[in-house]
Amino acid sequence: MKRLSGFLFISMWIVCLPSFVFAQESNTLQQLIDETPEAGILRLDNITYDGNVLIDKPMTIIGKENTIIRGDGTGNVIQIESDQVVLDGLQVKHSGMSRSSKEEYSGVRVMANQVTLKNLIISDSFHGIYLNKTKDITIENNHITGHGAASLGNQGNGIHIVRSGDNIIEKNTIEQTRDGIFVEYSNNNEIKNNMISGTRYGLHYMYSNNNYFEANQFTRNVGGAAIMHSDHILLEGNSFSYNQGSRSFGLIIQASRDIEVKHNDFHLNQRGLYLEQSTNNRIEGNDFFRNQIGIELWTSSTAHVFVKNKFHRNNSDVLTVGGESINEWYENGVGNYWNKPMLDLNQDGIGDAPLEYTSSLNELIEENELAYLFLNSPAIQIYEKANELFSNQKVMAIDKYPMVTGKSRIPIGWLISIFIGVLAVLYFYKRGRCSCRIFGRKA
Amino acid sequence: MSYIWKEGLEQARGKGLWLGIGVIMLTSIFLIAEARAFPADFGFEALLLSLFDTNMYILPIFAMFLSSFSIYQEKELKTVMILLTKKESQGTFVLKKSLAIQFTIITAFIAAYFILALFMKAFLSFHIVSFLHFLLVISLFLWIFNQIGIFLGTICKTKMQLVGANILTWFFVVFLLDLMFLYFLPAVTFDNLRLFSWVYFLDPIHTLRLYLESSLGLFTTTNMSRMMDKFMFMDMWIFLLMNTILWPSLFFILSISFRNGGQSND
Lengths: 443, 266
Prior knowledge:
The complex is a heterodimer.
Chain A: H1 2-16, E1 20-22, H2 29-35, E2 40-43, E3 48-50, E4 53-55, E5 59-62, E6 68-70, E7 78-80, E8 85-88, E9 91-93, E10 106-110, E11 116-118, E12 121-123, E13 127-132, E14 138-140, E15 143-145, E16 159-162, E17 168-170, E18 173-175, E19 179-184, E20 190-192, E21 195-197, E22 201-206, E23 212-214, E24 217-219, E25 223-228, E26 231-236, E27 239-241, E28 249-254, E29 257-262, E30 265-267, E31 271-276, E32 282-284, E33 287-289, E34 293-298, E35 305-307, E36 310-312, E37 316-321, E38 355-359, H3 361-367, H4 379-389, E39 394-399, H5 412-442
Chain B: H1 2-13, H2 16-35, H3 43-76, H4 79-86, H5 90-123, H6 128-155, H7 159-184, H8 193-201, H9 204-215, H10 226-231, H11 236-257
């Protein structure tokens, strides 16, 4: 009996133990996948394997530093049709690039749930990762590189998500693709800590609700992030910077409601935040620094609340284009930091008089998009002053409780050292001249 | 070579060049201090663009003052008369003097920027290629405005006239031209866009800035609207080359043709 129970125990242990298959060069990758038992782990060598492959059972594939899976250029390099698949540490290359085929191909295409894709390096593919009708996918720490701006129309997106919910997308780096992350008809996703640059739109987001974006960096794209036809979204702590071009923006919110934009950085964009046909959005605590236009609002966009935002050195802080739009620039006695000289005699941090932000540039911009070319021009200030004198300016925003900024961007230590430096130069210069004269007299 | 040596000594002994370089360095140091707060990745490029925006005001006026007074001094001290009666013609004199002024002023300012580069390297993520693009743009900026200054120095008869001409030219180029553009902007349509584009890009300040922006990767010419596509119908470097050749050549020819304010002395 003892012997039987011992045998049974060992058998059960062997059954429960994950199965390891060590890849050998003689087998094709598809064979290796087929030979790996369900829930087994397939460890690949430091070599190049030929794709394309189909994974249709739960399993884990782990690669080494130089494990490459190279597609044949006619389809998806890796297609996942089973739940509970994990891909870890692989380089995936060379998917089909055809735009006239039945589907758009990708490096990794996921058509199942509870899949984890991590530490992948994907390049030379139409889409990097494609999720279609999936749930609970984790995409983590991957690096996806596209073909660059020159072939923007001939390639797909870094991560393409369609009809997929409850996914976590974090710590990925995406560059040079058409759109960084494209999301369509997908709810309840968390997109965090990703870095996206050199794309058309860093984030292209349509018909998707209840999603959360945190600490992503959208830099040097044509447009940082575009949120369209979507509701109930929270964007927090993201950076939308250096999105420059003739039509560039940090973040565009179009035809969307109940979007919360909190504590994000909008630095050096042509337009920091662009709002169009949207209502009831909350813009709070964001930093608008050195954009050509901090916030551009079209008339179709109303009932927003702007509060505690900081505006520094933008060529124009706010422009309302297309007529008057009704928005709140303060709430519960708190407005925004406008970085304009104002009195605060009672020292409560709120300016003593309401701030009326006026400008005449809105008409120029409405009439001709070439006006953006002149926003950096020294003549703009004269143009604004001239229009102010002739009362041609219009009110862009009224903040009854403008906040008073106390913090300088230039550290005081720097100012002191520069001042001392200048004094020292002057002192030695004068001393030098005196000694010369004395020397001359003596001579 | 003797012209360059003489010019170098004169500029070094005068206060104008040092004042110009001092102002540029002081403002640049403030901007570098500010740029430390920029995000690390592209903060350096943003700083270079800020420097250019500041230089847009300062450099033209210093370049024009320094070069115009240099050539005016030759007239005032009668050295030009001596040279012209002996071995030089007006053409060769203006050519040699122009080369000397260009070399001296451009070298001095570029040297100042190399000193500033030490600060940039110490406090920011320094990118040498971006910096070289910036230096190229600054050199061309000085190249064009020095030549305008030489023209003004040649045609003006009194110092007051020269000061006035310099300030007016500076105000016209830096402020008034763009103001005129802004007032004409509503009249620009898709049909007459090409003409507007030519006029826009023949303003060296516009071309130099856009060239710098695009070479630093802060302005992309992809995904442009139909209007912008038509507007930017040529590569930026071609416009840059045109400005570099056209304006200095034009003002050089004018300097020879309109010496003494257009009066002829028989």
